[in-house]
Amino acid sequence: MMIQFIFLLAQIPKKYLISLIISIIIIICNGCETFHQQLWSINKNKKETVTLLPKFLQLNDNLQEDTEEEEYDNEWVVEIVGGLEEAKDIARAVGYKFIAPVRGFNDVYIFSKENYRKKRKADDKSTLALCHHKQVLWVEQQRIHKRFKRDYITQTSVTTRNDTNYNNKIFFNDPFWSQQWNLKSSRTISGEPISMHVIKAWELGYTGKGVVVTILDDGMQHNHTDIIRNYDPHASYDLNDNDPDPMPKFNKMNRHGTRCAGEIVMTPNNSFCGVGIAYDAKIGGIRMLDGKITDRIEAEALNYNINYIDIFSASWGPMDDGKTVEGPGRLTQKAILKGIQQGRNGKGVIYVWASGNGGMQDDDCSCDGYMDSIYTLSVSSVTEGGTSPWYAERCAATLTSTFSNDHYDKQMIATTDIENKCTGTFAGTSASAPMAAAIVALGLDANPSLTWRDVQHITVWTSDPMPLLNVNNGWNKNARGLLVNSHFGFGLMDASAFVTVAKTWKNVPAQHACTTIFPTFSKREINDKSVTVIKFQTDGCMGQKNEINFLEHIQLVLDAYYPIRGHLSILIISPEGTKTQLLSVRRRDKSSAGFQHWPFMSVHTWGENPRGIWQLHIEDKSMANKAMTGAVNNITLIIYGTKEEPKHYKEIKHYRGKQLLNSNVSKY
């Protein structure tokens, strides 16, 4: 046995060997009992124990593609029992400097080390010193994350046109109003009318009154002529410099947040820039992307003043390079959950997220953990002609779409810019997320009682696929009768329909979660020659208090290994026959790390009954003609939904009386 153990150690890369030895010491010394899913996160909560060696050897490549490039900050986040003074005493006793409590969390604090020498590897020795203290429940040294804004411009010179051909029955004197094609009626490349019907929503009297939206970004120029009327300091903070003012640095790298904000609240009829979709909403900014970005920074941003702010808009995420698999850290996940459960006095804040710009890299937004969260409203883009833009990613987690640019006709988005300027060149899914946030603000103006799940249901029910149907492939009709597409979600957001439905909306029944686990799961081989089919059954927790009869989200949590991760294609088939592509081939992803407890999320079976046999199909679709073998080590299916039928399901979802089953629609 000892010889086998030594042989095993010899196979482990040197950069991991020291850490493994430390973990063995932890076990022997009966110190912290587990490592969290993140490598250097140590947790004493016995309820979260895992099998140490396999989890440790995986090293969670999902959080950082190239572990050699990781960088750790001189900051430890520590959960301590006993309160503020106890935390200060522990910091002194173990040789740390107490910095501050983590905003928005009870009993979680920030420590740093005196005379800390910057290094790329985690300081496990210092982490262990904290871990051994009996009052410490959990500790993690903060890793510096790479986060990227999702505005994508390929050309420095962009042409715009005077919008005389659009419906201008509402006129504004703002100079960029004529360029705001995205707020008016247009035509698809096949001649179909296409619109988000923003003007109709205004005519119904909804402009975002009483709603607070905060932009999570690189700051926001709040004294901008087109923003200052709506600026709300109570919805704003600078986490990079730790002060209340989110004013950005005035350079090209820090104009993103100001551009996002303008789409929502530009002041109408002030002869400056353009008109915001929710021009009577209040706007705040959290400056967080212009400096070191850590799990703690993201968590504080997403948890800021959650009983005051209604909507957070985020147009950033992990690298859209077609090879990264990464999501929110432990603290950020807790922050989002707290925002959902406690925000808006229990109704839940709305987290709107841009789906990503990695389309040209064959990226798939299912490899972005912010998209795979059931708590985010993920938004993709539609061009003026009704097509999917070249940069858009596809995944089953995308809920809806709004307008953005296309490099063919070069029509981009008009909005505010730093230095009190205007721009007509905002682009990418970065521009789509604030539009969605603004439309949600119109909906909350119509009905402030909407919960976060009500907002998602209304988005599903009112998003319009019809203008996109004849010019895009990939439309599926699920067993509930809903049209859905991996590029667009349930269609193009319709502001008029959103507010009309919201006005008389009845809250959906309580959400239930039902988990199907396989304690004796037999490892299944994956190879390049055949499809690996795994069948499993669920009764939707029938007869239990968490019974589900009407699906909302599903998550397929996968542990799998394959020599080249990007070769894998993953498909799931529901008991009612709906086929959902959970993962497409990513040609740039050469990682051998596979997936470690990765939650592939889908909304494509929304409204279906979950009971019956599910099928999971995993195959190598790369056509690389290389003999490869991997394995599925474990799967878990988590389904979310309701026992009772939501009231709006009693009505048939109508798609403007159009014939649905055309050449671009499949019915499974």
Structure write-up:
The chain is α+β, with helices and mostly antiparallel strands. It folds into three domains: 67-144, Alpha-Beta Plaits, CATH 3.30.70; 169-502, Rossmann fold; 510-647, Sandwich (Jelly Rolls). 20% of the residues lie in helices and 25% in strands. It has 13 helices and 31 strands. It has a seven-stranded parallel β-sheet, with helices on both faces. The chain has a six-stranded antiparallel β-sheet with strand order 1-2-6-3-5-4. Strands 22, 23, 25, 28 and 30 form a five-stranded antiparallel β-sheet that branches. Helix 10 packs parallel to helix 13 (495-503). The longest helix is centred in the middle third of the chain and has 18 residues, at 429-446. It is globular. The model is unreliable at 1-20, 22-68, 153-166 and 659-663 (pLDDT under 50). Keywords: Calcium, Cleavage on pair of basic residues, Disulfide bond, Glycoprotein, Hydrolase, Protease, Serine protease, Signal, Zymogen.
Concise summary:
Helices cover 20% and strands 25% of the residues. With 668 residues, it is of the alpha+beta class. The chain has a seven-stranded parallel sheet with strand order 11-12-10-13-15-16-17, with helices on both faces.
